[in-house]
């Protein structure tokens, strides 16, 4: 009877992890698509000047360079998650649990970098004419990933605080 219960728990964990892997691979593929497209539809477009023909208009601006770097980080992170999903072996429970530990930070990195790329792309285009709006948009795009991370992790943070304070502080690292 105990082995039956354990087998049911293992199947439930596998099912939840498979669903997580499916969802993350879908989101990762969407992020990779968006960031790939953003790299070729650059903010400001391309120069028509014969000496700089084909080069991005804003290539020398710092915000544009941050856009390119963050877009690249977002694309590489999301592609890594999608690639790991392809490698996932659904039968190995240990691998599935490690998959989540690996892909969760990569997805957050892709999300944060995508948000930063969006903000810096808009900043690059808008700052010359409307600096105050460009700054607000950039600040929102920088703060949002961190705020969502804190809100998402808040229940676990509170649990760690309560366990550490009320029960056994040595258990906190395992939570």
Automatic annotation (TrEMBL):
Membrane topology annotation: Multi-pass membrane protein
Residues that span the membrane, as ranges: 20-42, 62-87, 108-125, 131-152
Compartment(s) where it occurs, according to its Swiss-Prot or TrEMBL record: Membrane
One Pfam family matching this protein: PGG
Domain PGG: 18-124
Taxonomic superkingdom: Eukaryota
GO cellular component: plasma membrane
Keywords assigned by UniProt, alphabetized: ANK repeat, Membrane, Repeat, Transmembrane, Transmembrane helix
Descriptive protein name: Ankyrin repeat family protein
